Amino acid sequence: MLEARESFGGVTSGVRISAKGVRVLEKIGIHNIGENTEKLVMYFGTKHIKFDVKNEKDASPAILVTRLAVFEKLRERINELGINIIYKYKLDNVIENADNVVAVSSDGKKIQGKYLVGADGVGSKVRSLLNAGGTSEKRYAGYLGLGFIYPSDEKIEMSLFNILNGNIGLGSIGKISPDDTCNNNFLWAHIHMSEAEAKAISDKEVFERIAERAKGWTPHLRQVFQEIKANPKTILYHQPVYNGNLPSKWFNDRLFLIGDAAHPYGPGGQGISLAMLDAEALCSLFTNELTEEKKINFQITRAAIAKEKGESSEERNKPENQITSNFGLWWKGVFMKGFHLFSGGKIEL
Ligand SMILES: Cc1cc2nc3c(=O)[nH]c(=O)nc-3n(C[C@H](O)[C@H](O)[C@H](O)COP(=O)(O)OP(=O)(O)OC[C@H]3O[C@@H](n4cnc5c(N)ncnc54)[C@H](O)[C@@H]3O)c2cc1C
Q1: Which of 87, 113, 254, 305 is 20 to 30 A from residue 344's alpha carbon, by CA?
Q2: 316, HSE (Cβ side, Cα atoms, 13 Å)
Q3: 121 alpha carbon – ligand 1 mean position (Å)
Q4: What is the pTM of this model?
Q5: Cβ atoms 262, 303 nearer than 8 A
Q6: Which is the closest atom of ligand 1 to the Cα of 258?
């Protein structure tokens, strides 16, 4: 495994991994991380609607978890399997030969292998090498993604607070890492702003922007924000969010793309699961039969799913699609109540 970063430590964020992703984690041998999310509670002012999150029979539910907790478990499994991770290796070029492939780092280090899988995220180098001159560059989604992880033993079901000019998510997330001494909760939000602002914004400014917004929140949410501000152990994580187009080429003779490298994808609660399901599908090609037809089929089927999920999340999060009037909020509440009745109280996430 070639990784540009120095380590997987540092400030962490929270994520939701859908049930399909949890199934792949379990297949890898990773169990019992984060907190299960079997319900979604949607708030409209002080009223709420509670959904059961749809799940396949006997499957484990989706989870809320910190990225660090997932990394630590993956690292354990990688060690058990004897896989070597080479950190500080920034891939810069790839040379494909008839019977091998050579990775070249930005400082000229060469490593040879049989195949190279580009799982290098939204700004993928491997994608740009496979699609020279293509239009697969990442593009700014129009907002900053942010989250606070704060120590708390209060069990909170995954909740979505529908609020004018910006929804808030909240839920229990478990331990930040195995040696953490307490449980934690996670509050997440988006702030729409320019890309330059999102790149430059400081932690202090993020706190100020959220404090300003919190003036319009319910007393319960304001109380949560007080706890977040008062606790010195609170972790704040923020970053500009990017989307992107599906590139036309996902593979060559010895190169493959998976995850955000194949289908750049912002927050929406599916990106991690999609990346793991891509990896599972590619493993099945490697362990069965790697024909041209199967490679084409891999790209077509995985791309169709990523496009559908990615476009709906992009649409939902666009600045122009946020609710900006009390009537809009009221209408969404009525619509969700109707949906709750119609779906028997179940929702697919
Ligand atoms: C604010 C935010 C919130 C999100 N929340 C959720 C969520 O709740 N649930 C969810 O499912 N998804 C969420 N996502 C999306 C999710 O993070 C991605 O879809 C997922 O991480 C993609 O995984 P990946 O392995 O393809 O890429 P990444 O997780 O981006 O990993 C790519 C890796 O490649 C390394 N790398 C990059 N370039 C090079 C290079 N040249 N050489 C070597 N290594 C390189 C990087 O350092 C990184 O370790 C969120 C995204 C954002 C931005």
Answers
A1: 305
A2: 14
A3: 5
A4: 0.91
A5: yes
A6: 26
Ligand 1 atom nearest residue 271's Cα: 19
The position carrying tokens 């992880």 is 149
Q: Residue 101 in contact with residue 94, Cβ under 8 Å?
A: yes
Residue position matching structure tokens 């996902």: 250
The answer to whether the CB of 169 is under 6 A from ligand 1 is no
Reading the block at residue 17, the tokens are 């991994």
Half-sphere exposure of 179 (CA within 13 A, CB side): 1
| Distance from residue 124's CA to the centre of ligand 1 (Å) | 10
Burial annotation 290-318 (CB, 10 A radius, 16+ → b, else e): eeeeebeebbeebbeebeebbeebbeebe
- What does 193-238 look like in DSSP terms, one character per residue? --HHHHHH--HHHHHHHHHHHHTTS-HHHHHHHHHHHH-TT-EEEE
Q: State which of 199, 272, 273, 349 you would mutate to test the pocket of ligand 1, scoring each by most atoms of that ligand within 8 A of its C-beta.
A: 272
8 Å CB contact between 146 and 207: no
- Model confidence band, residue 131 (pLDDT cutoffs 50, 70, 90): very high
Cα 122 to middle of ligand 1, angstroms: 7
Residue 17 has, within 13 A of its CA and on its CB side, a CA count of 29
Judge if the beta carbon of residue 12 lies within 6 A of ligand 1.
no
Nearest to 169 by CA among 141, 191, 147, 200: 147
Burial grade of 43 (CB within 10 A; 0-12, 13-18, 19 or more): buried
Among 109, 120, 124, name the best residue to mutate to test ligand 1's pocket (greatest count of ligand atoms within 8 A of Cβ): 120
- Give the C-alpha separation, 146 to 324, whole Å: 20
| Cα dihedral 230→208→315→157 (10° resolution) | 10
Tens digit of pLDDT for each residue in 183-240? 999 999 999 999 999 999 999 999 999 999 999 898 999 999 999 999 999 999 999 9
| CA nearest ligand 1 atom 1, residue | 145
Residue carrying the six token digits 């964020």: 13
